[in-house]
Specification:
- The protein is α/β, with parallel strands linked by helices.
- The protein folds into two domains: about 90 residues, no CATH class; about 140 residues, Rossmann fold, CATH 3.40.50.
- The chain contains nine helices and eleven strands.
- The chain has a five-stranded parallel beta sheet with strand order 6-5-7-8-9, with helices on both faces. It has a four-stranded parallel beta sheet with strand order 3-2-1-4, with no helix packed on it.
- Helix 1 runs parallel beside helix 3 and helix 1 crosses helix 4.
- The longest helix has 15 residues.
């Protein structure tokens, strides 16, 4: 190994748990043996998210690497570094399912001594009610119905990375609209029931969490509710921003199935 060889990762995707964990972190771990120092460029957009309680990226890095090896920097090459290698995380590759298994084995041991900050039900509903887009428009109605059958309804915003891992590990039923929080399915036990709410577009285009569920033998199903008018008018008319409405009929069927 060359002395003082450094790797620069541009746009580390730390604003989105799935893309950070699968697209960057697993690849970064795979490459660290070759380098003495790793510079991670967050980028301006990512930096803004760090200031808004998105701390899973830094927490996960601290669990894996010695602090002396990782240097967070602006999204440009540090000028005081020799043998710097520019790269994009996607240039490193091995099958996604291997990444899921690798990450599970890497982080699950860290929860052995972790005590949850408060008691949670083993049935959890993950809310995106505080998000700017892709949330359930009749969520209050959904949460009221689920609470009656023992669900703990919560948001993961501001929750520590270890707390999220532990929460998913101990759950036996998880319900959530499509979102990066479901990356934590990597840490679920086999046979955990998972219900993902998604718009038809997201169901067709995004198979991320279905793949994770199949990898770890989770009881996964997806439900497509009714698309509602976007709260965000974006110039590209991206359908990933669509909100969702869950019908009363489905809620009743869901409760009957779970109980």
């Amino acid at each position: 190994m060359n002395k003082n060889r450094s790797l620069f990762i541009k746009d580390a995707c730390a604003y989105n748990m799935y893309h950070f964990m699968i697209g960057m972190l697993s690849n970064l771990i795979n490459a660290t043996g070759e380098y003495d120092t790793i510079y991670i460029g967050w980028g301006e957009w990512t930096a803004n998210y760090f200031n808004n309680n998105h701390n899973f990226a830094l927490e996960s890095l601290k669990l894996v690497f010695p602090s002396s090896k990782i240097i967070c920097c602006e999204n440009k090459c540090p000028s005081n570094c020799e043998n710097l290698l520019y790269t994009n995380p996607e240039l490193f590759s091995f099958e996604k399912r291997k990444k899921y298994i690798y990450l599970r084995g890497l982080f699950i041991p860290h929860i052995s001594n972790h005590v949850l900050s408060k008691p949670y039900s083993n049935r959890i509903y993950i809310s995106r009610g505080d998000a700017r887009y892709r949330y359930i428009t009749n969520e209050k109605e959904v949460m009221e119905a689920l609470t009656k059958i023992g669900f703990h309804c919560l948001s993961l915003k501001g929750m520590s990375f270890i707390e999220q891992i532990s929460l998913f590990y101990h759950a036996d039923t998880i319900i959530s609209i499509h979102g990066a929080a479901l990356t934590n399915l990597i840490f679920c036990k086999p046979n955990t029931t998972v219900i993902e709410f998604a718009t038809p577009y997201m169901q067709e285009k995004s198979q991320y969490f279905k793949d994770i569920a199949e990898t770890f033998c989770l009881n996964y199903q997806v439900y497509t509710g009714d698309i509602t008018e976007d709260r965000i008018k974006n110039q590209n008319n991206m359908e990933i921003f669509n909100d969702n409405n869950i019908t009363i009929n489905y809620i009743e069927q869901l409760i009957a199935m779970i109980t």
